[in-house]
Amino acid sequence: MANRNRRRSTGTAVKIVVTGPFSAGKTTLIRTISEITVLSTERSITDETRSRKNDTTVAMDFGRITIDRDLVLYLFGTPGQDRFDFMWEILGEGMLGYVLLVDASRPDSLDEASGILEAFRRMARVPYVVGMNRSDGLDETEEAAIRSRLELEPHIPVVPCDVTDRESVKSVLLALLYSVVDSLDATAAAQA
Ligand SMILES: Nc1nc2c(ncn2[C@@H]2O[C@H](COP(=O)(O)OP(=O)(O)OP(=O)(O)O)[C@@H](O)[C@H]2O)c(=O)[nH]1
Ligand SMILES: [Mg+2]
């Protein structure tokens, strides 16, 4: 009976941030993959961007996905509108890595993403991947243009995705986890 309230061990819990421009699909990505009901802070949009959608994230989204017995990801989604950019630093605290999500169907999404990425790179030197939502696959020319616009180093993965599809979201998160493992390996090799 002494163990009645003991929790099953859940292994390591790590924090992953999903950031990116307004309406890129950040909240949707977390809702698609989370195994718990996502805590979201969405409010009606009252300004001119209302024509694009009704609600926007004003503080954060929070979800969770268990990768295996040893690893649980806590997913934090940022707001996309830059008037809430003070949340980036708050949510970025202690993150293992992040996903920069871009809407591939809107060229200005990439411009907005560039500014966000600059802020995140300044904030933390942790691995990240770029997810290209609403892209029906990327050809080499498109990928090269994205890499150049965001000034990505060659090892940064660019992953086309559909944030409404669970397998697709998984592939983005796995690309990030592989990047984390690679960077840990590189750190270990540098210290050897
Ligand atoms: N058709 C389609 N619609 C999508 C896709 N991803 C997101 N949406 C829709 O696009 C809109 C924007 O998605 P959100 O998940 O709210 O985007 P967000 O990045 O959280 O937006 P903010 O919090 O306002 O920055 C919503 O109406 C989604 O239902 C997609 O891959 N395909
Ligand atoms: Mg949102």
Question: What would you say this structure looks like, in words?
Answer:
By secondary structure, the chain is of the alpha/beta class. The chain has one domain (12-191): P-loop containing nucleotide triphosphate hydrolases (Rossmann fold, 3-Layer(aba) Sandwich), CATH 3.40.50.300. Helix content is 36%, strand content 27%. It contains five helices and seven strands. It has helices spanning 26-33, 86-92, 107-123, 140-150, 166-191; strands at 12-19, 39-44, 55-68, 71-77, 97-103, 128-133, 158-161. A seven-stranded mixed beta sheet has the order 2-3-4-1-5-6-7, sandwiched between helices. It is globular. The relative contact order is 0.17. The chain binds guanosine-5'-triphosphate and magnesium ion. Guanosine-5'-triphosphate is lined by residues 22-28, 53, 56-57, 79-80, 133-134, 162-164.
Write the layout of secondary structure elements.
Elements: E1 12-19, H1 26-33, E2 39-44, E3 55-68, E4 71-77, H2 86-92, E5 97-103, H3 107-123, E6 128-133, H4 140-150, E7 158-161, H5 166-191
Parallel strand pairs: 1-4, 1-5, 5-6, 6-7
Antiparallel strand pairs: 2-3, 3-4
This protein binds guanosine-5'-triphosphate (GTP) and magnesium ion.
